[in-house]
Every structure is written in structure tokens, then in C-alpha cells.
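User: Can you predict the 3D structure of Aldo/keto reductase? Sequence below.
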Amino acid sequence: MQITDINGTVTLSNGVKMPYLGLGVFKTKEGQEVVDAVTYALDAGYRHIDTAAIYGNEEGVGIAIENNKVNRSEIFLTSKVWNANQGYDSTLKAYDESLAKLKTDYLDLYLIHWPVKGKYKDTWKALEKLYADGRIKAIGVSNFLQHQLEDLLQTANVVPMVNQLEFHPYLVQQPLLDFCQQHKIQYEAWSPLMQGKIFEIPLLKELADKYKVSVAQLVLRWDLQKGVVTIPKSIKNERIISNADIFNFEISAEDIKKIDGLDRGERVGPDPDTFNF
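Assistant: Sure. Here are the predicted C-alpha cells for Aldo/keto reductase:
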């Protein structure tokens, strides 16, 4: 990943350019809260917005994009099919419902939200159909571990272009990151700031002081230097701006290894092997 500035992108396996920094809107309330957050991000230079059907805020995201001076064609918009809607026909229907709420006629990226056993292969076939029909620019998965990816790849005609996973200093999963890189599956981080727990880790505070940045800026820069697309969530304008101020320093290889060394396989979210929703 070549890191330049807030306008920087990674090129997916099909040639589509995906901004490596975006705004996530998980738990951002539908209505003015999400409209404001997306507006702040677009005004600050972000061009990547990540939502999902289950977040219940696609309509607000759509309103913010529709009302912003930034053209839709310049925005990389992601949503995800929820577990209850997985399966071939129900996924096609769910996609249309997401488009209607988002007030757009295509998505830049559509993901299977979780690997629902017995359903994700049919769901993937639906995504392949939408992609073949030119209705989505890129397709991928979320929360797929290596064995689930290997299972999917046995029948997939298209290799997922993205795998969005929980990723932070306590959950690096380097073998999974390596597997995705080998198969040209772009790794993307959700919960990169560990829902605020990064601020309790002494090493991160020490390194942030060394580079004269905030702990959040340090961790988001670490994501990018690991080749991982990142979508921190915030509803505060100043925090959204601050999260994007990560292009005037570079973490040394030695300090990258120190942050990697914090890995303890610890999750702040559900385990893809045991989730039950």
C-alpha cells in the first residue's frame, strides 16, 4: 500500500480503487446524527463511507451523500447483507432495499456481513450475479476466517476482493492477514480503535508521545502501514478530522513490530466461529 494523503487508495484485485481511510457508522443513530457524521467526513476529505443494513442508518447515509457537494461518483460506498437475509433470492432483494434506502443505483462494495453456515455460498452466488450484472463495483466478505474463506473459494467463481474483520493491536491475526494478501483479498479493519480500549495500553501511549501524535492517530497509521484499509467510527467533527491527520509521520519498522507484539487474540466483538445472530 502506497500511503500518500487522505485521497490515497488501494487497488482491488479487479482494478477498482478503494480509499484506504473511511468512516464507519456502526452504532451511529439514524437521523441527524448519522447525517452529520457523514457530512463532517465528506467535508473533511473522506471519500469512503461504510454502512450495513443491520445498522439501521442507510437512509441517513443516503441523505448526507445526496445533499453533499461531493459527487456520488467520487464516493466509495459500502453496505452489507444481514444474516437473516442471506440466501440467493433474499440477498438480491436485500440489495435492492439497501440501494433504495441509500438513494443510489449502485454500491462500490457489497459484503456478506457474517459467514452464516449453510447460507454464505448461496449468498455469494447472489453477489456474483449482481457483480456480473454491473450493479456493484466490487464484492467481498466480512468476518470470514481462513477456513471459511477456503470453503467459499471451493465454489466461488469470483474471489472476494475484500475481507472486513475486527483488527487492532490485540487482534492482529497475522496468518489470516498473510492468507488474504496471498489471494489478493484486501484486508479491512473494523473496530480499529478497540472501542476506545487502545487508550488504556501503555506502549501505545509511549509510542504516540514519541511520534507526537494521539494514540488513535498512531493506531490508524499502523493499520495503513500493515496494508489494512481502516474505517474508524466517530460522530464528532473534531475526532473525524483528527483521525484523518495521519499522513505527516511514519512509524518505524521496529515500532511496527512492537505494536504487532501486543497481539493476544483478544476480541472486542463476536467470534466468527461462535456468533449466534
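Residues 9-260 form a domain with the TIM Barrel fold (CATH 3.20.20.100). The beta strands are 9-11, 17-19, 23-24, 48-50, 76-81, 109-112, 139-142, 162-166, 186-190, 229-230.
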